[in-house]
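Dear support,

I submitted the protein below through the web form. The confirmation email said the job was done, but the results page showed an empty box. After a refresh the structure appeared. I'm attaching both so you can tell me whether what I see now is the final result or a partial one.
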Amino acid sequence: MLREGGYGFAVGAHDPRHALHIDPVLRSTFVGGNSDEWVDELVLAPDSVYVSGYSKSANFPGTTGGFQPAIIRNSTLLGNAFVARYSRDLTQMLQATYFGTASGSALTIQQMALGNDSLYIVGNAPAGSLPVGQSPGAQTSAPSGAGAFVARLNRQLTVLHAASYHGGAVNGQFTNAHGVAVAADSVYIAGNTISADLPDSAGAAVPTMTGSNDAYVARFSLDLGTRLRSSYVSGAGNTTTDARDVLVDGDGVYIAGNSSGGLLNTAGAFQPARGNGGPTWDGYIARFSHDLGTLHRATYLGGSGEDRVWRLAANDTAIYGAGDTKSGNFPIAANAPDTTAGGGEGFVFAISRDLSTRIGGTFLGGSGSTGDSVGGLAVDAMRVFVAGTTASTDFPGATGGAEPANPSGAIVGFVARFDPFLSTLQQSSYYGVGTGQKQVYGLGVDAGDVYIGGRMPGGTLPNSAGSAQPNHGGGAYDGFIGLFSADLQPPQPSSDLAITKTGSPDLEYNHYLIYTIEVRNLGPDAVSGATVSDLLPGATLVAANWSCTGVGGASCAGGQGSGSISAQVSLPVGGIATFTLCARYDGGGADVVNTATVAPPANHVDPNPANNSATHTVVDPSLFKDGFEDTTLPALCTGL
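What the results page shows now:
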């Protein structure tokens, strides 16, 4: 159950003679119809979760009312791209839409970004395959038969406001868009091209292409009606550079990807030269001005093997890149929590915003033979999250995680959380250990939730009961979305434990105070081993006996005792444990202030601690003796 203040779960009917196992992932849902689907990207909004991907299903759920409610294709072997929007608890698909045309089965969505009132998507589209929006885009036709595209949907996925191709007249079909970022006044896209005549490159930081295949970054107006500028990235030489992600903030526009050389303005950078001398890739990060008129600096990120940066993120102090490496000498930091490089390893790296200084860097992966790959990166002021795919049985930091083990070495997802300096791997978790491979390509994070998205070939998902789509829809693959709590640990059961205390207004039988303490479980979960305490004020109450009874299925360990109360109780939802305590007063005219408390056991949450204590006060009980010294005492008071 997701609710304000934490996570919990309601335990249904079960056999108490056997151990109760709680699914450690908060919720999962399948994404798909009766044929093949996969999820390539995930974006998190305050009120919903967006995923995009590709579908071959004519019955993809939730498309009624969407911008494109039906699949459009020339063959059942083909499909359309899609975008889908889910509730944050993953119990409802709020809306979905196909995105393509009959000639657009090859159209793919690579990345998404949210604007104030819009969802922007980028990818690659054949000529004539890009759906037409309400307003024309900056480039309405695809040169050379295909090109990159950027499109703007409303957040409800019911309206396509505008769409634009991007590419040159020569070899424009080899222009691809991989990343998109939204600023207050413009939209940036990034990718790669072999087209030497990208439009609107006049005045750009790098206006001409000199390599064989270069990265680019382009800036559009928010309505996509105007392309403001395009810039290449690399310099001289027969080199190849690709941009896989882009971000924009107050310091400029950052792009990242992989390059075989030729980066410009590397003087003063953290790594001004390539880490390998062969034809393989190094990762890189480059920083442009907002108008793309200046390339401030670029830095390589790599060792002697092949390295790629797939994802970018930022906070106020650093730029973060995450990707994959085959370099044993990748420039991780000396204090990295994972210093061992396998045959193929993930990495995450933090660098100063001017790209001159390493802040932190670490490998990320286990010893699995198929390596570990990164699919998502998210950062805030105090945390860095990385998600991806692993086949390792010893993925670092998974002990204590929501899914702590992958004993068979299956291909499954992972999520990891670091401190902002990348010096501590705080927690990681596998995802989807069991049936069916899970490959993770998207990640979204906020203060309390972590979402991942990807694809799997059938099988089951953890905790999918009650989700928008609890079962595999069909075909070879379905997409999926998984939800963790931000600590990446198993969800803790939650019980609102309430305690009340009533008692004698004055002395009874001239020497005694009698109290009644009630402990109730208001739910939503049963609790076993809650501790009830009543520490007697020794200066006034010198001896006591107590007993406990339960109703509604409640039970008290021991049932009775003497002195202060420290007892364990077990309470189903609605159960009540009642303690009766008789204490002898010897306070010599002092007031009696006595407090009882209840506390949940370890790894159990009480969402309302305000009702966990109760105090009863009697003002100088010696003033009000009742005069019945010889009356037969209650059993609890005997012998005190």
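Response: this is the final, complete result; the empty box was a page-load delay. Residues 288 and 296 are 6 Å apart (CA to CA).
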